[in-house]
Give the backbone structure.
Amino acid sequence: MLLEPNEGWLFAGDFYVGKLKIFRRGENIHQMIESTRRVLQYDFDTVFCGHNPVLKHGKTAVRQKLQYLEDIVGRVQQAYDRGVRGQALVKVAGLREQWAVKLFTQNDVGADYVVRSVLEGNGQIDLPVGRTA
């Protein structure tokens, strides 16, 4: 990332993807949340991103991304604490599996990896998320 403070520009590479629906295997939602919080400490208004080339009111968009990620963590954690497991956690997160993407990426990308990331970050993974117990 590169910040141009005089102009209020943040060149974000692939940092900003609004409402993530899928993760690659090994991505960490907790690290994303922490990185997003750090970025919000800077003064910027426009975000230049490879996925959405120019975001006016970029700081607002980044705040919304943070809230979205935190909401996913909260919903998954609450459901897990109530005993929800497997693919039902994906649904609770407000996501759905994109089977064509999973097939195309040889199971390297999926909505279940978002849920797995929440649980692994809290040391709670005890069964494959992609399967119902």
Observations:
- The chain has a mean pLDDT of 89.
